[in-house]
Amino acid sequence: MDMETNRQNQPGIAQVLEHLFRHEAGKMVATLTGIFGIEHLTLAEDVVQEALARALQTWPFYGVPQNPSAWIMRTSRNLALDVVRRQKVFREKEPEIIRLMEDKPSAPDAAIFSENEIADDRLRMMFACCHPLIPTEAQVALALKTLCGFSVTETARAFLTTDAAIAKRLTRAKQKIAEAKIPFEIPAGAELTRRLDRVLQSLYLLFNEGYKASAGDKLVREDICAEAIRLTELLAEHPAGNQPKTHALLALMLLNAARTPARMDDEGQLLRLREQDRTRWDQSLIARGMLHLAQSAAGGEISEYHLQAGITACHCTAGDYESTDWAGILSLYDRLLEFDGSPIVALNRAVAVAEIDGPQAGIDAVQVIKDRQSLDSYYLFHAVLGEFETQLNHLSAAAVHFRRALELAEIRSEQAFLAKKLQACEPVLEPVS
């Protein structure tokens, strides 16, 4: 078989590399940063990117290695050694760095770094990215980029901003790291508490991007959700992160992830909560989520993650849609608004109001949302109003909202769902005889 034929028989190379990028790039960047020093973060990222580029160049011709993760790590290690030997900036540290990287197993499929080494470096990276000297708006973006393999575009979508704005934030953050000589460590005391909040926010945004992707063919990207859960579990298992709000966030992730199998039908069409087959919900994830929710009750601290996890738990423990504790959910949304007065939280609260008092009450709740105009470019704002108007049999008004929602939606399954809702609202024209 010639190389061209072999290349054509490797259609999954891109998918394998994307999976590796999500699962391994963040690990490798963190590990190399620990070796190079955090002031050389960009260099660590460049080395890992080059290793992935080499995989993309060679694997289509020679096949995917038996242990692709070890291949990426070994190639990154070898490229890093070349950099250390070539660049003067590492001259003083060269013997120590080379010893750290060369004192590793030589077997082709053996792991280069131990899981404990990787875990510690990833935690250090989490807290370094969220150092107070780094501009606040750049902290989470940097964590998403370096730890989770987010592209600039994906990070921009998570923040509802532009690629250029995110690129600027990342550049400023890395400049500040170099100028301030930010330590690559897990903080302690009051500093730990301050930075933990930023770390949790990074993980929260990461999970949300996977649970409800910003654009593309898939509504849910399970790989991103799983990576967010893994990182949060890593944090919860460490003394620095073993706090109630960490367990609350982990509970929220697990309970939401449990419902993923039922969010789409067999044809890839979106299913609303009332339409989902609850027997398809992952009971093991629900059990794990409820366990962490119980652990989050330690002490007297209540965070927005506690409240969001409580809302999700109400859904996960209801036997069917009709038995959902909407009064309890509304009460939790009322408290959540005290933490987060965002229009999106208020919009979700309006849905709970409508479930209790009817669609007109839901519309009234929407009308009094502060900064309601900021929701005009949010497709779910129009989808919710369209649903309320449909329930009131105001089909013309509903059609206006569904049409606007359809214009704004970027996920194909959501577009298909909204197109059906719009079609149901528009009158059927009689054929001309």
What does it look like?
- The structure is a single chain.
- This protein has 433 residues and is mostly helical.
- The chain is 68% helix and 0% strand.
- The chain is built from 20 helices and no strands.
- The chain has helices at 3-8, 13-36, 41-62, 68-86, 94-102, 115-129, 136-148, 152-158, 163-180, 189-211, 222-237, 244-258, 283-295, 304-317, 326-339, 343-357, 359-367, 379-391, 395-408, 412-425.
- Helix 7 packs across helix 10 (189-211).
- The chain is globular, with a radius of gyration of 24 Å.
Which labels suit this protein?
about 425 residues; mainly alpha; 20 helices; globular
Mean pLDDT: 83
Please outline the major beta sheet: none
Low-pLDDT parts are: 1-11, 428-433
Helix content: 55-70%
**How many helical stretches?**
20
Overall SS class:
mainly alpha
Spatial shape: globular
User: In total, how many beta strands?
Assistant: 0
The fraction of residues assigned to DSSP E strands is under 5%
Ends apart, CA distance between termini: 64 Å
Order of helices and strands: HHHHHHHHHHHHHHHHHHHH
State Rg.
24 Å
